[in-house]
Amino acid sequence: MNRKLYDKLIFELSRPGRHGADLPSYNYSHSACTLPEGLLRETAPELPEVDEPTVVRHYTNSSTNNFGVDTGFYPLGSCTMKYNPKVDEAAVADAAVENLHPAQPADSVQGALKIYRTLEKALAEVGGMAEFSLNPFAGAHGEYTGLMVIRRYFLGKGDETRTRVLVPDSAHGTNPASAAMAGFEVVEVKSLADGTVDIDDLAGKLDSTVAALMMTNPNTVGMFEKGIPQIASLVHDAGALLYYDGANLNPMLGIARPGDMGFDVMHINLHKTFATPHGGGGPGAGPVGVRAGLEQYLPNPRVVEDAEGKLTVECGNEAFGRVSSWLGNYTVYIKALAYILTMGAEGLAWVGPLATLNANYVKESLKDLYLLPIDGPCKHEFVFDGLIDKSGGVTTLNVAKRLLDYGFHAPTIYFPLLFHESLMVEPTETESPETLDAFIEAMRAIAHEAKENPEFVKNAPYDTPVSHPDEDKAALEPCLTYAELMEPR
Length: 489
Prior knowledge:
Elements: H1 52-63, H2 86-91, H3 95-98, H4 110-127, E1 131-133, H5 139-156, E2 164-168, H6 174-181, E3 185-189, H7 199-205, E4 210-215, H8 228-237, E5 241-246, H9 258-261, E6 265-268, H10 270-273, E7 288-290, E8 302-305, E9 311-314, H11 330-348, H12 351-366, E10 382-385, H13 396-405, E11 412-413, E12 422-425, H14 433-452, H15 454-458, H16 471-476, H17 482-486
Parallel strand pairs: 2-3, 2-4, 4-5, 5-6
Antiparallel strand pairs: 1-7, 6-7, 8-9, 10-12, 11-12
Helix pairs in contact: 4-11, 5-6, 12-14
């Protein structure tokens, strides 16, 4: 298979009888350690048999195959993979945090509840909302929670006719999915050539059956919805609510607040905007905020503060229900609050301008070689429609794979669906000019390679553990076990 020794699976390195430690035998005679006969295995588990140096080297080398914000530039558009300050990680490493239990009496965890309440107030100020719930575990979970708040609001008024949610055709895929999960019918709203909402199409679909319009502002192609005052007015005049997808909140920090734009409900991806870990399956956080008049519908339980400053955990009768067992991912909230307090109001006010500056700098530096379907100033991200010169047949996928050889993670590709060869870039506010210049140089080099030697680009990458897999076969016939991997193909 011509793979390096430690690129092999741990099972391939296994040798019968080999082990990494020789522990003394010990007979446990206590009855509590005796398992019922029906739970005992009939045969020993087939675990790899390896020595300690082999184990350590295998997993250490395997870890270097992972790419993340701590190893390099991660320009995923719409995903805001920015650097996570290590001081935020240190804030949750204290034993006083690690040893807490969610079932402890409120009197014994006043400090922890104070962190929750302080973060709720901070997010309400950032979003221009009246209240926030920290219970949702992720962005999509927050969308679902926000839509359930909207559903509960209308049912509480006795209005059972509002069964539809409007979603722009450029929206994140989680928007229609969340609306459907919340029990709504999804209706698509068309976009104009610049990616903004077609207000005429929106107006024609607003009626007494619409519960909400979901919007991302700036939108998925990085353009600010200049018609938001008119949109908000139309939605509210129709008796519906306006929902803000907070995935693209970064460029708005220090510039504008969703609540001031007319949004009634919003979620914030803390793992995008407030520098908590993002990717790898979690943990995430998607707090939901609401305008005044909707607070009582937020999910249970809630952290409540009395006149004397004492905090308790309570459940309200008007809430739509629960979305988590306790109060969300506590350690994620510590990191987010540490980030907010470290940055302060002055630091947070620089996030939006710097995110916008970095995106426009990269865009302007590459638009002579990559097709820019929507010209003009963008916000935090932008979208190319592949290379301008497509004569060599080099696709966006080819460009993304070749970029791996230059030491960069690929941008988001083939999203949004507005363009055939979408290549979506978000530099984020935390990257240095030197990093951006190196990325620009690599992208320009790939464009020239595509013109001079297209086949070379099409066969990339060359400097990765897996060079050029068959994407169709990987999707249709995945190798899910060690035995399948070792079968000849």
